[in-house]
Amino acid sequence: MNRDSKYSMQRTVVSASTFEEADNHVSYWLDKSTTERLNAACFIINNLFSVSPDTKMRKDVLTARKHSDG
Fold first, then answer.
1. Are the CB atoms for 46 and 52 separated by under 8 Å?
2. Which residues of 45-65 are buried (b: 16+ CB within 10 A; e: fewer)?
3. Is the CB of residue 44 less than 8 Å from the CB of residue 38?
4. 7-62 confidence digits (pLDDT tens)
5. Which phi and psi angles does 25 have, rounded to 5°?
6. Which pTM value belongs to this model?
């Protein structure tokens, strides 16, 4: 079984919710283990940016600078 097959993402659906519904959503995730929450977050991030866990980070686009206040 593909490890991502237990998740699915519908990018075209957005809905308003009440505070009670949002609270139920938070309770759902708080009942999950830290590992399950991190796996779900990684799945969402990978889909949003169209990458996979094997994708290498491009280090040539990063820059570093010092703060001017110190």
1. yes
2. eeeeeeeeeeeeeeeeeeeee
3. no
4. 676 666 667 778 887 777 788 889 999 999 999 999 888 888 888 888 887 778 87
5. -65, -45
6. 0.52
